[in-house]
Design a protein that fits this description.
The protein is α+β, with helices and mostly antiparallel strands and 495 residues long. It contains twelve helices and 28 strands.
């Protein structure tokens, strides 16, 4: 930073006559204060550096093409694919500025181990357990760990979890220097942090920056730590370290439009990573709880219309048949406010809370339904593999005797017994046509209206009674079911 000199000649002379101390002292003290405020990472590097390892992955390759086996260009393509989701041009591809050598001989076919990627990791126990990213070891036939003292070990993959991007590998060694685990709850935005890893294969590289944000929603189960620490391909799996020399995160992702570091990096909070690694070490897999609901955010407009003081919770759009949620009585249109006494501020909080709950546990969910709270006891299930998509539901049969609500732009009929059975509903009214106010908010023919103004509409007669008592000069909320999904809409009746 450049500072302008503001002393005039007479003032400067006066200061010199007085020994040059009076005027210079404030500026000198300020400079010393700034100097003391700058962090020194040298002790941290000496403390944590011996615990950070380089991880190389190998794969069996029966045939390699003409661009080379395990070449630096090939490794770079793999690293860019993993970090940025897009390949970089192959070195021999047309229009690539890095043209191939014209007389380069084609390599021999081989079935030997071939390099496939480079990453980082850190020792979490003295007997050789090492934590890294799942994407670092994914698909590897062999994993080789190199310690800072240059010793190399063949590692065994203990377990890997793609959802959290956490993996644990084990080397046969003892007396290793393990890292200290920090308390993520004490981490503050603006705090200095440091990363050690092997960007582009450059072992034991140190970079530093500050915590930019916490609880970033970039993953299904994990709230990431955002920093401006320089992270590049090869840093994956390395530790994020606070100024006390404690690991607070695992460097996992970066945001980039150019393919290079742009000042936005994401790390997995170490408390979440430890929870996953403990399960991987115990059983080689991670068990996660599930409720069986499809959820969405609660908008401010919907919150106001259903009587909530603020936009919070997870809006239940659908409930899976036979799921723990259905058995507990959770219904489409409910807003889940808390799980086991923990408040749900935003919808992404719910899958994390439930996912971290042991399957089989008895829990309590509090829902907002028809303007009041309701506590439901639920037995948490276990996350399963993705199910085969269901066949499309048959077109519901049309019924006669449609009743019109001109102010709402709706024409509705009662649901038949067959339709209620098909949709697993106790009641509701089917939309035969939607115009004007209803059409503007997206209501369509075939939708089922379950409630209006927080009051259930089991049939057309009930809906008529409700609408007759409403103030149609004000917006109204409707709970609408479409197929397996439910949604609140706010409708403004025509006057």
């Amino acid at each position: 930073m450049n500072f302008k000199k503001t002393f005039s000649i007479p003032v400067l002379c006066a200061a010199l006559l007085l020994g040059g101390v009076v005027s210079a002292a404030p500026q000198s003290a300020q400079a010393q204060g700034a100097s003391r405020g700058l962090p020194d990472f040298t002790d941290l590097v000496e403390q944590v550096g011996p615990s950070v390892v380089n991880i190389r992955t190998l794969e069996k390759a029966a045939v390699r093409d003409a661009q080379g086996s395990g070449s630096p260009d090939e490794e770079m393509q793999e690293l860019f694919r993993r970090f940025f989701g897009v390949p970089i041009p192959a070195p021999n591809a047309p229009n690539n500025p890095r043209q191939q050598r014209p007389n380069r001989p084609a390599p021999q076919q081989s079935e030997e181990d071939q390099p496939r990627g480079v990453g980082s990791g850190f020792i979490v126990s003295t007997d050789g357990f090492i934590m890294t990213n799942a994407h670092v070891v994914e698909g590897a036939d062999k994993v080789v760990v190199t310690l800072p003292d240059k010793r190399e070990f063949k590692a065994r993959i203990v377990g890997s979890d793609k959802r959290s991007d956490v993996a644990v590998v084990k080397i046969e060694a003892t007396g290793l220097p393990a890292v200290k685990i920090g308390d993520v709850s004490r981490l503050r935005v603006g705090e200095w942090v440091m990363a050690i890893g092997s960007p582009f294969g450059l072992e034991n590289s140190v970079t530093a920056g500050i915590v930019s944000a916490k609880q970033r929603d970039t993953g299904e189960y994990l709230p990431f730590i955002q920093t401006d620490v320089a992270i590049n391909p090869g840093n994956s799996g390395g530790p994020l370290i606070n100024m006390r020399g404690e690991v607070v995160g695992i460097n996992s992702q970066i945001y980039s439009r150019s393919g290079g570091f742009m000042g936005i990096s994401f790390s997995i909070p170490i408390d979440e990573a430890i929870r996953v690694s403990d399960q991987l070490r115990a059983s080689g897999r991670v068990q996660r709880g599930r409720l069986g609901v499809q959820i969405d955010q609660v908008s401010k407009e919907v919150a106001e219309s259903v009587g909530l003081s603020k936009a919070q919770g997870a809006f239940v759009r659908g409930v899976e048949s036979g799921s723990p949620a259905e058995k507990a009585g959770v219904e489409p249109g409910d807003i889940i406010l808390s799980f086991d006494g923990k408040t749900i501020d935003k919808s992404s909080d719910l899958p994390r809370m439930v996912g971290n709950t042991k399957p089989g546990s008895r829990s309590v969910v509090q829902v907002w339904r028809r303007g009041a709270t309701k506590d439901l006891k639920i037995t948490v299930g276990e996350v399963e593999q993705e199910k085969v998509a269901k066949a499309e539901e048959p077109e519901p049969e049309k019924t006669s005797s449609a009743v019109s609500f001109k102010s709402l732009g709706l024409s509705v009929t009662n649901l038949s017994q067959a339709q209620m059975k098909e949709l697993r509903l106790r009641g509701g009214v089917r939309v035969e046509s939607a115009t004007d106010a209803a059409a503007r908010v997206g209501i369509q023919e075939g939708d089922v209206i379950l409630a209006i103004a927080n009051q259930e509409t089991p049939n057309v007669k009930a809906m008529q009674d409700i609408v007759a008592k409403l103030d149609l000069s004000k917006p109204l909320n409707l709970l609408v079911r479409r197929g397996e999904w439910a949604q609140y809409v706010v409708i403004r009746p025509a006057r």
